[in-house]
Amino acid sequence: MTATWPLPDDARCPCLSGETYGACCGRFHVGLAGGVPDAVTAPTAEALMRSRYAAFAVGDADYLLATWHPSTRPADLDLDDDVTWRRLDVVATSAGGPLDRTGVVEFVAHFRSAETRERGSLHEVSSFVREGGRWYYVDGEHRG
Question: What pLDDT shows up at residue 52?
Answer without folding.
Answer: 97
